[in-house]
Amino acid sequence: MVWIRLCISCIAFLSAAGSISYGLTRLAGRIRRAGDPVLFLAGQKLTLILYWLPVSFVCVCIPRISLENGVRAYTGEFVCSSVTSMTVVFNILGTAWLAGFCLSVARDGIKICRLAKLLRGNVPVQDARYLELFEACRRRAGAGGVTLSQNDLLCSPITAGLVRKQVVLPFADYTDTELHMIYEHELMHIRNGDLPWRILALVTSWIHWFNPVVNLLMRDLDCAQEVICDLSIALDNAHYTKKEYAAFLVRLTDKEAANAYTTALAENKYQTIRRIEKMAATKSFVKPKRWMTGISCVGLAVMSMIPATAVSAEAARLQEGWMRAEEVETIAEPQDFSDTSIEEHGYDDGSVTEIDGSQETESHSSVVDWEKTISANTRYLYQYRNMSAGETIDITVKCDDRAITYKIGIKNQKTGEMVSVSGSGTLIHAFKISESGTYTAFFENNNNFPINILSAAVY
């Protein structure tokens, strides 16, 4: 089915575009080791978007679609054609992709259920000191509609919820300094809108589960978000120093807190080390101008889409070459005039209506050539001629719809015996006369719909 092939091709093209963008972003990060984390995060977000925008797929399809007399005409095989072997291959690929997609959704669905069960244990914070500091930090951050809860199953503070946002603390005795660290960090996540991007990355990983680059992108995206939050609050803070903040991160490291539907103050040791190293190397933190970020993203998009579109176009040409190769092979295969093993012998069983078309041809011509629409369940007889043993009747029939199967053959007028071959597309066969008599060539449409054919018979 064409739509399965197009769907799988589109996913592959998107995966190529996103992977190229990710590679360029990582390359830029390695070249500029002290580069701006905001620009790096913008690149990660753009990469994530390129996993969804089918630019390469559209660029491949549009040149293969034309308008003729106001009617859309598909002129490229990639858009509207397929062949048998390709259908089988892409059906297998489609089934494999669907299986991987379902497994990815089920795996993360289990994590989501665990998180939902954990959050059911949330209780409102009762400590007045905790609430007073939280309200002060919330007003400074400009984050409205955020609630504060506690949960005895947590080891690290987290932020959860897309609509009803809440900061959830473990049951622990925190100092005012530690509460400032927690509140400022988690409220910065809310202010920056980090959680929706993590969820988008998670859904992207479901669709592109076969591409390991997506998992690397998710890891870098999470780390970049954490670094920006760290730098935004830990540099020149009146309540704590970078060293105090780093020491607090180390104490809170909790791998169980990692979930795409939450942001945790500290999730794993590897990420925590990267964050501390970045803080140690940064003396001051000033976010770049929006126009600078925009220009960087446009440049990255152009640099990514040019090779991605070229790769996609080449993949489309390879698919079209596959189609043409199989079409040539299929057409050439029946053209074996000496192969009698494919012939079927039988008699009229009354299953189709027989029509004598001899009046539509010249009575003394040795060649019958016409284009005609044959009705459903109909056998069309060309013309009876006296034939001697050893002579042949050569029949050629072309049907543009390669999915339709039909018969061509000859019939003995006296005995009613028929010799035929079946096939689709273009059929060419030479029927050898075994005994002298009166014979006709015929075309048989044993389908429940009419067929348009181009036919020639040489007696």
Q: How is this structure best described in words?
A:
This protein has 459 residues and is α+β, with helices and mostly antiparallel strands. Helices cover 49% and strands 22% of the residues. The protein contains 12 helices and 17 strands. The strands form 4 sheets. It has a 6-stranded mixed beta sheet with strand order 8-14-13-16-11-9, with no helix packed on it. The protein has a 5-stranded mixed beta sheet with strand order 3-4-6-5-7, with helices on one face. A 4-stranded antiparallel beta sheet has the order 10-17-12-15, with no helix packed on it. Helix 1 (2-31) packs across helix 5. The protein starts with a helix and ends with a strand. 31% of the residues are buried. Residues 69-73 and 330-335 have low confidence and may be disordered.
Structural class: alpha+beta
Spans of at least 5 consecutive residues whose pLDDT stays below 50 are 69-73, 330-335
DSSP strand content: 15-25%
Number-wise, the strands total 17
Strand order of the largest sheet: 8-14-13-16-11-9
What's the total helix number? 12
Mean of pLDDT: 85
N-to-C SSE series? HHHEEHHEHEEEHHHHEHHEEEEEEEEEE
Helix content: 40-55%
Shape descriptor reads elongated
From the alpha carbons, calculate the radius of gyration and give it in angstroms: 36 Å
- How far is it from the N-terminal to the C-terminal residue, by CA? 40 Å
Describe the largest sheet.
Answer: 6 strands, mixed
